[in-house]
Design brief:
With 293 residues, the protein is an alpha/beta fold. Helices cover 41% and strands 16% of the residues. The strands form four sheets. Strands 2-1-3-4-5-10 form a six-stranded parallel beta sheet, sandwiched between helices. Helix 3 runs parallel beside helix 4 and helix 7 runs parallel beside helix 9. The protein is globular. The termini are far apart. Bound molecules: NADP nicotinamide-adenine-dinucleotide phosphate. The site of NADP nicotinamide-adenine-dinucleotide phosphate has 24 residues, from helix 1 and strand 4.
Length: 293
């Protein structure tokens, strides 16, 4: 029995739906069984024969984290540590989701799992500490870092861009930060491959879609598809901005492309191209939009 923790978040919902479709035996919980409460976790796990835990619960508000460091640390460090200890106690494996924000983004080639972490903000620092807690507290643990996630079940960049592009004649989007947009459904499939593998390898892994772009490049593609699907009725100019023209509370990595060679080699997962996945996301999410107006 797999325990999906954080099953109502963006990734957790995607994974629940995939597990259901694929007939995976699993139970899911979110806030009602808090990862901050070891006794509640233990009580929930009792008698269920938990063989694996997938942790999608986290504090994910990157800028707000700068003002709420204690809460962010509790959810991203103490919570995962509690889950890893529980996994160890019940003899289960644990797969914990992490982020490209553990890197400072000064690199110029795809980050390897073995590259040293150097987070710059509260969110990234707590995620890096949470990774360590999981790896140290349970021998059968894997950390899966991802980046620039979007999907149908939570607030995300695609939804925000479409809303702004509908409302405004032009928008400015940062053009000097590079990374890889990643569809939550593709990540869910990679997690399923790991969960189902009979020959699990542990340690740190990276998964995003393939290729790279900037937030501006991502927004330009969203605009193109938004027009094609009739979601945006008039052209909206997508203007490139420098990071210093769009100040945010937390600093973002300038370069956060992740290498996927290790997960491809160890788990034979597919790593679809980001543009193809974005296009597929539009086709499954917005296919009736233009005709329903
Ligand atoms: N989104 C991205 O762009 C991105 C990029 C890289 C990595 N990641 C990582 O991917 C993972 C999933 O991200 P996501 O975007 O799916 O996150 P999300 O939508 O914010 O989901 C997190 C879930 O955890 C729940 N939660 C909060 N406190 C909890 C508690 N005490 N006990 C149990 N559950 C609790 C949240 O509930 P509430 O909603 O009620 O708070 C929410 O349902 C995270 O580890 C994140 O760091 C995300």
């Amino acid at each position: 029995m797999i325990w999906l923790v954080g099953n109502r978040g963006m990734l957790g919902t995607e994974l629940s739906l995939l597990f259901e479709r694929e007939g995976v035996e699993f139970v899911g919980t979110d806030r009602e069984v808090s990862i901050l409460d070891p006794a509640a976790l233990e009580a929930f796990a009792a008698g269920k024969g938990i063989s694996g835990i997938v942790n999608c619960a986290a504090y994910t508000a990157v800028d707000k984290a700068e003002d709420e460091p204690e809460l962010c640390r509790a959810l991203n460090v103490d919570g995962p540590a509690n889950l890893a200890r529980l996994a160890k106690n019940v003899g289960a494996w644990i797969l914990h989701i992490s982020t490209d924000y553990v890197f400072d983004g000064t690199g110029d080639r795809p980050y390897l799992e073995s590259d040293p972490v150097a987070p710059t903000g509260v969110y990234g620092m707590t995620k890096a500490d949470g990774e360590r807690q999981v790896l140290e507290n349970c021998a059968k643990s894997a950390v899966l870092r991802t980046a620039w996630l979007y999907g149908a079940h939570g607030p995300n960049f695609v939804a925000t861009m479409l809303r702004l592009m509908k409302e405004r004649p032009s928008i400015g989007v940062v053009a000097d930060q590079k990374g890889t947009p990643t569809w939550a459904a593709d990540l869910a499939r990679a997690i399923l491959a790991i969960a189902r593998s009979g020959r699990k390898r542990y340690g740190v892994y990276h998964f995003t879609n393939s290729g790279e772009t900037t937030w501006h490049g991502f927004a330009t593609e969203i605009h193109r598809l938004g027009r094609e699907y009739g979601i945006i009725e008039r052209d909206c100019e997508v203007k490139p901005l420098r990071t210093d023209e769009y100040p945010t509370k937390a600093r973002r990595p300038a370069y956060s492309v992740l290498s996927k060679e290790k997960i491809k080699a160890d788990y034979a997962v597919e790593v679809p191209d980001w543009k193809r996945s974005l296009s597929e996301y539009f086709s499954v999410t917005y296919r009736n939009v233009g005709t329903s107006r």
